[in-house]
Every structure is written in C-alpha cells, then in structure tokens.
Amino acid sequence: MDIFTMVKAAVTVRQAAEHYGLQVNRNGMALCPFHNDRHPSLYVSDDHYHCFACGEHGDVIDLTAKLFDLRLYDAARKLASDFHLAPDKPLPESIRQKWKQKTKAQQLRENEQLCFSVLNEYRRLLLDWKKRYAPQAPEDSLDKRFVEACHRLPWVEYQLDILLQGDSYERSEVVSELTADGYIRKLQARLREERYHE
C-alpha cells in the first residue's frame, strides 16, 4: 500500500486540520488559513475541505501541502510522521476493515457530499445566469435561464444551508429527498452538459 493510500485511510481531513491548529466548529466550519478570513468560510469534513470564499479545496494531503507549502509526497510523509503511521508496516486490521466496509454513515456522508457539491455548482450556475441573462429593459422578453435562476436559487441556497448547518436528521432528510428518483444524478449530468456547451 502506498503512502498516499495509507494516510488517506488513517487520517481524516478534520483530524489533520485540528492537529495543525484550525478550530473547526460543530458544523464543520473554520476560518480559512488561505486568505484573510473574518467569518468561517472553510468547510471541513472527514474526506475533503472546501472554502466558499477563495475556492480552495482538496483532501487531507492537499490541505497539509498547502498549509506547509510542501509537495504532495512530502505532505503525505509529514502526515505519516505526525500521526505515527509506519509506511513499511501494514495498516492495523481495524483500520483495514473500516476502510473496506462502507458503513451506513459513510454512505450517507458520501451522498451528502455529492449533494452538496452538485448543489453548490448549480448555485454558481444560477448566480451567473441571473446576472448574465437579466433583462436590460422592461419590454425585453425573459430568458428561460434567468427565470430558472430566479425561481430555483432560493431553494438551492436553502438546501445548502441545511447541508452545512442542519443537524444529522435534517441533513439525512435533505439527502433522501435529493437522491430519490436519481434527482441529484440527473442534475449532475445536466450540469456536465452545461459545462460542455459553454
């Protein structure tokens, strides 16, 4: 097993962030160390981080590399050292088992992250459409993209708020609704199409 796989299996982004001095609140938010952040805009979960202000994102190795200005390999080695992982020894059985089997909670987290990521991209698209396709004069006919942006933006922002700040029950309800009938996958495919046609 290579050092990257071992580190990602053994150390969560949140563990590393807190170990290196970031104060992550109960909603997973922290002040972003990559820009002058006055209000927490860095979302930290177990397997990734994302800043809503400056756009920085990645996994535990990316975070460490960025924090200490290291190459990815050196960041992985630093994590292995700081968290007392021996690259020449196999992972403990407990970690290997945990890594192999997706628990219900892990599946929910993955679905939650998918929903969050897709909705966040949709929100950016809608904000762009609202600005780009706004009527220039009262007599102009409304572009369907402008109408969609006005109609869907409040809903998308509400869903994102729940995924960011809701309790586990509220988040799981949102995820269930969004994954029902493959809605979030269809939206993801549509966003891919929009990127392709840009």
UniProtKB/TrEMBL annotation:
Residues annotated as signal peptide: none
Pfam families assigned: Zn_ribbon_DnaG
PANTHER family in UniProt: DNA PRIMASE (PTHR30313:SF2)
InterPro entries for this protein: DNA_primase_Znf_CHC2, DnaG_primase, Znf_CHC2
Superkingdom of origin organism: Bacteria
Keywords recorded for this protein, A-Z: Metal-binding, Zinc, Zinc-finger
Protein name as catalogued: CHC2 zinc finger domain-containing protein
Domain Zinc finger CHC2-type: 29-80
